[in-house]
Design goal:
By secondary structure, the chain is an alpha+beta fold. The protein has one domain: Gcn5-related N-acetyltransferase (GNAT) (Aminopeptidase, 3-Layer(aba) Sandwich), CATH 3.40.630. The model has no long low-confidence stretch (mean pLDDT 95). Helix 1 crosses helix 2. It has a five-stranded mixed β-sheet, with helices on both faces. The chain is built from four helices and five strands, in the order E-H-H-E-E-E-H-E-H. A hairpin with a 2-residue loop joins strand 2 and strand 3. It is globular.
Length: 149
């Protein structure tokens, strides 16, 4: 049975933050529940910035994803970044990730988005292979970031 997707609203905020905590632990990212909650509330209040979704398999949530919207001249206009995609370990390897990407791509096409970007940890060979199988290409550019506050 294919997964279903539930757009996060205020009633799902706690579940979203719990999945973000698991994802960050898996990838070794420092987790700040206050910052994540603040960012999620801002996203919920500003849907033009993107959306957060929970992934349901049968009767339970097994993961989440977050998509941020922007403009990129290289891609001719609207561009999206998949800032997070996480599935519980017992939900992996069953086609849920691929089904999730197809859902995301369809949703973004309907919004007039021209490109989808994401980041993956260099040492996560399994994730890199998954994304390559799904048509994503690595670039020689590297992401740089700076916290402003």
């Amino acid at each position: 049975m294919p997964p279903t997707f539930v757009r996060v609203d205020e009633s799902h905020l706690e579940a979203l933050v719990a999945f973000v905590a698991k994802y960050y632990a898996f990838d070794g990212i420092a987790f700040d529940a206050s910052a994540v909650g603040r960012g999620a509330r801002e996203l919920l209040a500003s849907p033009h910035l993107g959306s957060a979704w929970l992934i349901r398999d049968g009767g339970r949530f097994v993961g989440h994803f977050v998509v941020a919207l922007a403009i990129d001249l290289e891609f001719g206009g609207r561009q999206a970044t998949l800032t997070e995609l996480y599935l519980d370990e017992d939900a992996r390897g069953r086609g849920l990730g691929t089904a999730t990407l197809r859902f995301i791509e369809g949703m973004l096409r309907d919004l007039g988005v021209h490109a989808l970007e994401l980041q993956v940890e260099q040492d996560n060979a399994e994730a890199r292979a998954f994304y390559a199988r799904n048509g994503f290409e690595a670039h020689t550019r590297i992401p740089l970031s700076k916290r402003l506050g």
